[in-house]
Structures are given as structure tokens and as C-alpha cells.
Amino acid sequence: MYRVTHTYTSERIQTISKLLKTRQDTIGQLRDNPDVSVLIVGAGINGASVFRELALHGFDALIVDRGDFACGTTAAPSRMIHAGLRYLEFGEKALVSEGVHERNLLLQNCPHYIFPLPTTIPFQSRFEGMMGVIRKTIGMSPGKRARRRGAWMIKVGLNMYEKFAEHNRQMPKHHFTSRAEAFKRRPGLHPKTIGTVTYYDGWISYPERLCMEVITDAESACETARALNYVSARSSLGDTVTLRDEIGGQDIEVRPKVVVNAAGAWIDFANENLGHPSKLIAGTKGAHLVLENDELLEALDGEMLFYETPDGRAVVALPWLGKPLIGSTDIPVDHPDTARCDDDEIDYMIGCLSHVLPDIKIDRSQILSVFSGVRPLKAAAAETTGQMSRSHFTHVSGPTETVNFPVFSLVGGKWTPFRAFGEQATDKLLAHFDMPRKICTESIPIGGGKDFPHTDLDRKQWIKDAVEATGLDEKRINILLGRYGTGARQVAEFCADGEDRLLANHATYTAREIEFIIRNERVWHLDDLLLRRTAIALLGELTGGLLDELLAIFASLHELTDDQAAGERKRTTDILLDRHRIDLS
Ligand SMILES: Cc1cc2nc3c(=O)[nH]c(=O)nc-3n(C[C@H](O)[C@H](O)[C@H](O)COP(=O)(O)OP(=O)(O)OC[C@H]3O[C@@H](n4cnc5c(N)ncnc54)[C@H](O)[C@@H]3O)c2cc1C
């Protein structure tokens, strides 16, 4: 049997019993007084967004997630902060316009996690797909969707895309590159490529961390706003919703005036538990591969490649935290719990790459990890999954015969417009409570984006100040700034208040930093740390040695017995293998 060797014996180590007490206090308060104005079920990015809006309006809102914060689809996007150029083809102008606006706000409000992303589209024809555009322009049906988009069609789309950004332009306009120039930069492009066009969108480094920051910002804004991970909504009757503390194993009964169902792809299942049966969602799963392939990384050259498959689907390859990431698929699923990246999807994604960079061979042994999520799309008829609308809306139902509260379900939604979606849903809630909007979140920085040093000069000064205050070196502060934004100062102070030694099995994380995360970020399971507070697992950095080293810290802080630690290790390796194909056996 595996035994934890408690190698982590820093004298300064304190248990996280204080943190556990905070959780128990919150649960205790709910037992003493079960009344809450709004219960939000699901702490993905959309639930978090509504939670922040409500907290800023002083509501005693409670947000719960049956797993960790951001453990659902919020952890599975292509890491693009974009409005979806291709949705213009389906006439989703309002969605795209909103997405461009929100992308630009996010570049300003979250400069620690969201960055401009030059995006290059190689094309093999000039005019393909144009007939559809012309037909649409003159008010006719676009006819059958083009299997391929030629340069002119892309240009029409980009002109429109960029027009939406005109009042708050953050990035340069698109430019075309000739065949000769394109091949000079990327000799491995498909020989049929006749040119490329490059435009600008955004990418996100740590979506899971950003979601958590939205939640903690909300808690800081309002002391009656409370958030609990590992608490599920199980059933409801009359005024009461029964929650289950998945850590302590006890039930908690709450009496919400309103419930917000932000369970994403699980909305219909959650509505069943909430006594509001619905058929709102038709989810499609999408998978990604994180690769170890220097040739591909070099060909990407700091940009995203956005290319088409022969069946007309758009897929992407982009650099993410130093590794190439490729995706995604779009396949209907019956139950989101069953979504895994299967063998066919891996073959498909690798095969797709050969349509843009045919000489780059991807070997399965180069797959560092896979991840898969289910798009919470609105149930509606569509010819293909790609044509299903990506728009979002709030569906209001009830009270019903069995329960006395209404449910506001957040249907659809991309990652990028989460602020707008949260704002729109909250406007409906404010109307329900007959309250005015007091504050707009458009220009409120999030988490470590607050007081962020935007210019090179400010950044240098920020780092210099942190070096002087903590005694940590410049390189280390720089790394922390990249991981936590201005929250890095607090992490650095904690690290400096002990021996900030690197882990034996990781080149850039120290034991103190891991301790900080576990103590402050509600890490109840080891996979919270490996998959959502850090990107260690997805980036392929996890070895058996590192797992044991991190487990030792985790086990010490949580005061686990050896048997409990062995159980935690097994839980973690099972999840990593089952959901991410990371085999540590
Ligand atoms: C393959 C793929 C690629 C994508 N790429 C992008 C992209 O690049 N850019 C972009 O903008 N968008 C992208 N998206 C879309 C985006 O990721 C999602 O739309 C968004 O994350 C949905 O967030 P959510 O909060 O609505 O749902 P989720 O994040 O799924 O949150 C729902 C939460 O509810 C919880 N829950 C469920 N049932 C219960 C219950 N009974 N009790 C308590 N909690 C419960 C779940 O545990 C989960 O955490 C992509 C989606 C997919 C699938």
C-alpha cells in the first residue's frame, strides 16, 4: 500500500483547520438561518458572474458547486477570448458584437490572465463561399453553407468583426499576407495555401483561476455573499432546497427566495432536482489535446492557426503556456458526466492538423494531456452541431406545484461574454426584487487585474518594489506576477516568510507557494490543485515524484492519516487517467 512520507516538515506549517472552520462556520450559519435571497447552483464562470453582480448589489447570495469551483465546462474551453468570427455566418450579429465588446473589456480588466492573440487563417481559395454572403446581403437565404471559406468571404467577416470593436479598439486590424511571405514564415504550410490573413483576438492563461477570482471578489464585496465548493443541490420541496456537503457528508437545508440554475450542461438535471423539470439544453462535447511537439510550437510562432477541415468545420491550434494546444470536436452527448476525449476524437484532431501543416507528424506519445467539456447549448433544431446557436438567455420558470420559488436558468453562453450574461440575468433578478441597478461591472478589474502594471515601466517598478519588500529575486517575482497578477504580492510575502525552496520535482513552484494555494484557495482535493489552481497536470509536468511531493504537503495541511492520503492519491490518479489520459501508474 502507498504510504505518505511526510517529507514536508516546515516548522511554520500550520494546518488548514482555520479554513475548514470557515467552511464549517458558513454551513453552521446556514443551518441556524436557512433563509437566503438567491441560491446559485453551479460555480462555473456564468454562475460566478451572477454571484459577483448580486454581491455588488448587497444580496445575501449563496453559490454552490457539487464539485470544485470551475470544474465543469469552464475548465474546458479552447482558451480563446473571442466573439466567434464564424458565428457571423449564421447571422449571430448581436452575439458577435457583444463578444467583441466583452473581449475588449476583459483585455482591460484581466490583463494578468487575458492577452491579445494574433490569429492566422490560411486559405486555399479566393472566392469560395461568397455566393452565400451575397445572397445574405441582399436579404435572400444564404443557401447551403459553404464547405470552405475563401479569402474574400473571410475579409467580409473580418471587416464586420472589427467594426464591432471600433468604439474601443484594443488591437490592430487584420492584414493579408501573400503566399510567398506566408511560406517564408511557415514553410510547412499546406502546398495548396494561396495566402494567409491575420487578425487579433484574445487568449486566457488560467480560466479556472479567473473564475475563482470572480467568486472571491464577490465575497470581498459583500460579507453576506457566500461561496461553497463541493456542495450539491440534491432535491427541493416547498420553500426548501436540500444541499449536500460533499466533504462532510451532511445535508444542509436552505430556503431561497429565488434559485439561479447556472449548472451549464447539467441545467436540466439540476432543474429536475429543483422541482422545475425542463428540456433547455442539447449539449455537444468538445475535446482538446495538449502536446509536446516543438515543431508545431515553432510553426505556430506565437499565433493561433485557425483552419478548416474538409467537412467545413473550423478548428484551432494555439500556443498555451508554452505548449501547443489543438482542438476541438463538436459531438452531441446525452449526459455531460460521460463526456471524455475518445480515440476517434484524438485521430480526428491529429488528422485535421495535416490539412494545414501536412509535414508535422503528431505521435500519440506526444500527448501530454487531453480535456473535454460539454457546451451548454440551447436545445433547438440545427443541420449540424456547428450550426447550433452559441447565444445565451435567462429562462424563468415557476413557482411550480411542488416548490414555491422561481428558477432563473442560465441557458447557453460562451466563456467570453460571462460578464454581460451575468449582468443580463441580474437585471431580471433585480426586476424580480423590484430593485434598481446600482453599479455596472464593465470597468471593474478582476482579482489580480486590480492595480495591474500595464506598461513595461510600471511592471519593472512593480517588480522592483516587490523584490525590495520581500527579498525574493526578480525572476521569482516575475513568475508570480504571471500566475497571480497583483495577487502575487501576497503570495510573495507568504513565500518570503519562510524558506522559499523549489520543489524537488518542479522547476518553478516552491513548497511555500503550494502551501499558500492550499491554505487560501479552498483546495479540498489534490486534483483542485493540479488541475484548477495550477496547470501542472494539463501541461504534462506531473511525475509520480511530483505527485507524491505535492500529496505530502496536502496531506500535512489537511492532517490526513496515511490511509486517507493513499485514498486521495488513488482518487487523483483515477481522475487524471479517466478524464485527462495522464497515466501515473
Ligand atoms: C470544447 C469547448 C471549447 C470551448 N471554447 C471556448 C472558447 O475558446 N472561448 C469561449 O468563450 N468559450 C468557449 N467554450 C464555451 C465555454 O467554455 C462555456 O460556455 C462556459 O464555460 C460555460 O460556463 P457555465 O458556467 O455556464 O457552465 P459550467 O462551467 O459547466 O458550470 C456549471 C457548474 O454547475 C455544477 N453543477 C451541476 N449540477 C450541479 C448541482 N446539482 N449542484 C451544484 N452544482 C452543480 C457543475 O459542477 C459545474 O461546475 C467552449 C466550450 C467547449 C465545450
Would you kindly provide a written description of the structure presented here, covering whatever features stand out?
It contains 18 helices and 18 strands. With 585 residues, the chain is an alpha+beta fold. Strands 3, 4, 5, 6, 11, 12, 13, 14, 15 and 16 form a 10-stranded mixed β-sheet that branches. The N terminus is likely disordered. 37% of the residues lie in helices and 19% in strands. It is globular. Helix 12 crosses helix 13 and helix 13 packs across helix 14. The two termini are 13 Å apart. Flavin-adenine dinucleotide binds next to helix 2, strand 8, helix 8 and strand 16.
Q: What share of the residues lie within helices?
A: 25-40%
- Overall pLDDT level: 92
How many helices in DSSP terms? 18
Q: Helix/strand/pairing class, anyone?
A: alpha+beta
Oligomerization: single chain
Say how many strands there are.
18
**Cα distance spanning the termini:** 13 Å
**Which compounds are bound in this model?**
flavin-adenine dinucleotide
- Cα shape: globular
